Predict the structure of Anti-sigma factor antagonist.
Amino acid sequence: MERVPILKLGDVLIVSIQIDLQDQGVLALQEDLADAVVESGARGVIIDISAVEIVDSFIGRMLATIASISRVLDAETIVVGMRPAVAITLVELGLSLGGVRTALNLEKGVALLEDRDNARAVAVPR
Amino acid sequence: MERVPILKLGDVLIVSIQIDLQDQGVLALQEDLADAVVESGARGVIIDISAVEIVDSFIGRMLATIASISRVLDAETIVVGMRPAVAITLVELGLSLGGVRTALNLEKGVALLEDRDNARAVAVPR
């Protein structure tokens, strides 16, 4: 079974979804990501879906689950690279991606995470 | 035809190869990357092959070609995430990946690019 590689860059894990994930693949990705967050102490998970042409409720649920798992592990999940057509389909399907933050691309996603870290640093001065 | 997404982060383009590329896919990736380097003015291209289980002469040639194209466009290519078994196979096949720099993972690849930029800045003070 092919596994989706998880790239680490500083405090951020980057996942680029390019293959059609079935149930087993989704479970493997969730496990791998949870492991990676714990091992690396990452504060953010960025999931690039620019190669994903169709987002159905299955993928929507996967993204929400990954976001929930990461949140319990104190990492924020940001979905980036959504195609316009995918956004339209999501809304038509009534899927709101609740609890999942989005950004236009990887750079803006990383900027979002940095903003949050800065906000924390201000809130809790050391 | 599926296209491999190209992520941009600062001066660096990141490509994670997860699907088996055939001739058409390789040509498309080379074109997309050349376009992306020119459009973004990127100084580095990092190709993650951690999901690649078998590297044959076809893939080896693709990596070398991408590196050559990038070089003409003044961007350095670094291949990261090579599996141990892939490294062994490469050597056994007599493929040296000439002209392609490698690094253990994305972080070390980015560090390599930054070192180079720093070295340039020292060599050509402004």
Observations:
- The mean pLDDT of chain B is 90.
